[in-house]
Amino acid sequence: MLVKLFILLAAVALCRAQQDACEAKYSAESTCDADAACTWCKCGALPSQCWTLANAAKLPPGVYICDKKEAVAEVKKNLPAPVAVGEDACEAKYSAESTCDADAACTWCKCGALPSQCWTLANAAKLPPGVYICDKNATKAL
Questions:
Q1: How far is C-alpha 131 from the chain's CA centre?
Q2: Phi, psi (5° rounding) for residue 54?
Q3: Strand 64-66 vs strand 49-52: parallel, antiparallel, or unpaired?
Q4: What is the rounded distance in angstroms from the CA atom of residue 48 to the CA atom of residue 43?
Q5: Of 107, 102, 23, whose CA–CA distance to 66 is shortest?
Q6: Pairing assessment for the beta strands 106-110 and 117-120 based on DSSP bridges
Q7: pLDDT of residue 59
Q8: What is the largest CA-CA distance in the chain?
Q9: How do residues 44-103 score in pLDDT, each as one tens digit?
């Protein structure tokens, strides 16, 4: 369990290149929480930051503690269930970036701390924000 948590924290730390819309607007907890679409989330191992409610709902539980817990929980109810590694149709078909991206229904997703892999566009949209950076990210809600 501790190893999985360390890998997840390392993944988030290494792959934060994908910026959240609320993070881009707010750097202080008070201004972040004043926006109805945003919430401030604290993390002991990573810097605290402002997230959209949608992206806060995708953060790993127990790693981040967000101020608007009820609002995040409500958004989380409407999120599709995450797909486990090994259960994605594109992952099963493609192991190379070029063949993955050649399929209109698939996208190659990279991360410095976790293995890169091919995902369906729908499943790529379910990935935690900032952990994977996908070649085709039009379906991601940011």
A1: 5
A2: -60, -45
A3: unpaired
A4: 6
A5: 23
A6: antiparallel
A7: 82
A8: 47
A9: 778 899 999 988 888 877 778 999 999 998 888 877 666 666 678 998 899 999 999 999
